[in-house]
Write a structure and sequence with these properties.
85% of the residues lie in helices and 0% in strands. Helix 1 packs antiparallel against helix 2 and helix 2 packs parallel to helix 5. The protein contains 14 helices and no strands. With 448 residues, it is an all-alpha fold. The chain has two domains: 225 residues, no CATH class; 211 residues, no CATH class. The longest helix is centred in the N-terminal third of the chain and has 38 residues.
Length: 448
């Protein structure tokens, strides 16, 4: 058992740091555009909201690709590894084109939602550049999925850090017009993000072509289409995409409910979500390692190891989540002071709400970690449809209605939002754990 925990930790650590670097890209944009101007920051927030939903949904396919490539790698079938990577690129490119067509109409979408006309023009300038990041970043995710599956997690980390550094440097050049570059403001941030994503894609492709993993020949016959593999990846991937949409949709209702309660509560919620997102990167990175390890173990037909591998993943993930919870509870005031300037108007009120929200959030962090870990383990079995149904039920039949009722019709108010969402996450975690036990049993029977 000890060796399984060590192996899971070894794979997880670079993935956790890579996830934090990925989070850093958005944080860098927000900070530097915020320094430039409040109008541009408001436009960036709207632009991110438009592109994020499309982007986060399509990334579900890359999570399915990790499972398929890892299983093929475990079985020693290099041709199947190659085919899954190739068709994975085709798949995300197809959906990237669809995403670009939708986002090309951002102005009309924002007009429909009655946003300020002057702000819409600024958002459109940003989105018309940033939409071309979709195919580059999603192809990078597919190649990163391949690298993770074949044990090159450190390269994924290295490329993510390079991308963060390039994004920061290009933001500095083009937002503010430093070193003789034109001062482009928000358009400069879009150019920086696009340049960073192209750099990461180029670095990933270069490594695949010129390192020791060129033996997989993933670009061999790259334009040959395999309908069966394409279909298999789509069947595994679409429930993951919808699961991500269901979860992100549930979290998107929180600011809406908070906005109905009050401005200070909404501001406090924004701060808490930034902190929560940072700590969530740890179980998220471990969950990716879980998909790889389970799928690879299945490919190797080491059925006796499945329970130990899974336990090492959810034991490690939930253990870290407990540590996170303790850190948040003990240091909550110090953490919040990093994000709230007490000289600002209503800062004391925002801190008061944020402190109470963070306490509740620290507890539902355990439930959120549980659901992401068990969902990832199930993806390792290529089990995605029933987990999607379980998640949809938990989030939208339990979580959102409970959050709405408690926040709008009881004295819980803002705390009710977190209690409702936390309940949905807890139900999802329990259901997914039950499904894992059943799938594990069926898998052993199938291969024995």
């Amino acid at each position: 058992m000890k060796e399984h925990f060590f192996e899971s930790f070894k794979i997880s650590l670079p993935l956790i740091i890579a996830q934090m670097a990925q989070l850093g890209l958005g944080l860098t944009d927000t900070l530097m555009v915020g320094w430039y101007g409040t109008r541009e920051l408001a436009a960036l927030t709207l632009g991110h909201a438009c592109i994020f939903f499309i982007y986060i949904s399509i990334t579900g396919f890359s999570l399915g690709i990790i499972a398929k490539v890892s299983e093929a790698f475990g079985s020693g079938n290099l041709q199947l590894v190659r085919l899954n990577v190739r068709m994975g690129v085709w798949l995300v490119l197809a959906f990237s084109i669809l995403g670009i067509l939708i986002l090309a109409n951002t102005g009309s979408i924002l007009i429909f939602f009655k946003q300020e006309v002057g702000l819409i023009e600024v958002v459109e300038d940003y989105v018309q550049i940033i939409i071309w990041m979709l195919p580059t970043i999603l192809m990078t995710y597919v190649f990163k999925a391949f690298l993770i599956s074949v044990g090159k997690e450190r390269i994924v980390l290295f490329i993510s850090i390079i991308g963060l550094a390039i994004n920061f440097f290009l933001n500095y050049l083009f937002i503010f017009g430093n070193f003789g570059m034109p001062e482009l403001g928000l358009r400069g941030a879009a150019i920086a993000s696009l340049g960073s994503s192209i750099s990461m894609l180029g670095a990933t492709i270069a490594y695949c072509c010129f390192s020791d993993i060129q033996k997989y020949k993933i670009f061999s016959n790259f334009f040959d289409f395999d309908s069966k593999i394409f279909s298999d990846l789509f069947k595994v991937g679409w429930p993951i995409c919808l699961t991500i949409m269901a979860e992100s949709g549930m979290f998107s209702t929180a600011p809406l409910f908070m906005g109905w309660i009050g401005e200070s509560q909404l501001a406090a919620h924004g701060v808490v979500m930034i902190i929560f997102a940072f700590f969530f990167m740890i179980p998220l990175g471990i969950s990716q390692a879980g998909t790889v390890r389970i799928a690879k173990t299945l490919g190797e037909r080491k059925l006796n190891d499945i329970s130990n591998v899974a336990f090492s993943i959810y034991g490690l993930g939930l253990g870290w989540a407990c540590v996170n919870t303790v850190i948040i509870i003990i240091f909550r005031e110090d953490i919040l002071n990093l994000f709230v300037d007490q000289a600002n108007l209503n800062a004391e009120l925002v801190l008061m709400y944020a402190t109470s929200y963070l306490l509740v959030c620290s507890l539902f962090h355990l439930a959120d970690s549980g659901q992401i870990l068990f969902a990832a383990i199930l993806r390792g079995f290529s089990e995605t449809k029933i987990p999607f149904a379980m998640s949809l039920f938990s989030y939208w039949a339990i979580g959102v209605p409970t959050a709405y009722y408690l926040s709008q019709h009881t004295q819980a108010l803002g705390l009710g939002v977190y209690l409702g969402i936390g309940t949905g996450l807890l139900i999802a975690s329990v259901l997914l754990f039950y499904r894992y036990l059943k799938v594990k049993k069926m898998t052993v029977i199938k291969f024995v």
